[in-house]
């Protein structure tokens, strides 16, 4: 918030400017549970940029370099993981495979930078 103060003919006038910016990246991304073919992650919202978070997008990688869209349970999109909550569940994964996840927040101004990456290795099949 920006505060401006000035005096006009012996009167003090104060006005506030509430700027809206892109949100900050989500925080504390963590793996809540996993199995051989499913991973559940959650996170905490970062600063919303003075505008409500509209949704979150989670991208997935197999090499921690190239992050791509991946469908998750309850997604608002048929081709990517877009959710309104602070958690996501990925199913139909490969057993004994390392996955990396990065989360982005979106408000009316734009999209945040990606969160810190969280990774996990799915369990062996039948483990």
Task: Tell me briefly what this model is.
By secondary structure, this protein is an all-beta fold. 0% of the residues lie in helices and 45% in strands. It contains no helices and ten strands.
Overview of this protein structure:
It is a single chain. This protein has no helices and ten strands. With 127 residues, the protein is an all-beta fold. It has a single domain (21-121), classed as Immunoglobulins (Immunoglobulin-like, Sandwich), CATH 2.60.40.10. The strands form three sheets. Strands 5, 6, 7, 9 and 10 form a five-stranded antiparallel β-sheet that branches. The chain has a three-stranded antiparallel β-sheet with strand order 3-4-8, with no helix packed on it. It has a two-stranded antiparallel ribbon with strand order 1-2. The radius of gyration is 20 Å and the shape is elongated. The chain starts with a strand and ends in a 6-residue tail after the last strand.
Number of helices: 0
CATH topology: Immunoglobulin-like
Q: How would a textbook summarize the main sheet?
A: 5 strands, antiparallel
Order of helices and strands: EEEEEEEEEE
For the record, give the distance between the C-alpha atoms at the N and C termini, rounded to a whole number.
Answer: 53 Å
If you compute it from the alpha carbons, what radius of gyration comes out, rounded to the nearest whole angstrom? 20 Å
Can you tell me the CATH class?
Mainly Beta
Specify the helix fraction band: under 10%
* Count of β-strands: 10
Class derived from helix and strand content: mainly beta
Total domain modules: 1
Shape field: elongated
Looking at CATH, the homologous superfamily is Immunoglobulins
Low-confidence stretches: none
At CATH level 2, the architecture is: Sandwich
């Amino acid at each position: 918030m920006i505060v401006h103060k000035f005096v006009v003919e012996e009167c003090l006038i104060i006005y506030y400017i509430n700027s809206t910016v892109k949100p900050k990246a989500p925080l504390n991304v963590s793996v809540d549970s996993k199995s051989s073919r499913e991973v559940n992650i959650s996170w905490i919202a970062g600063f919303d940029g003075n505008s409500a978070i509209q949704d979150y997008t989670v991208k997935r990688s197999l090499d921690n370099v190239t992050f791509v869209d991946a469908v998750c349970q309850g997604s608002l999109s048929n081709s990517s993981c877009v959710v309104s909550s602070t958690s996501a569940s990925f199913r139909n994964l490969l057993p004994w495979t390392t996955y990396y996840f990065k989360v982005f927040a979106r408000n009316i101004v734009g999209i945040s930078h990606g969160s810190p990456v969280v990774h996990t290795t799915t369990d062996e099949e039948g483990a």
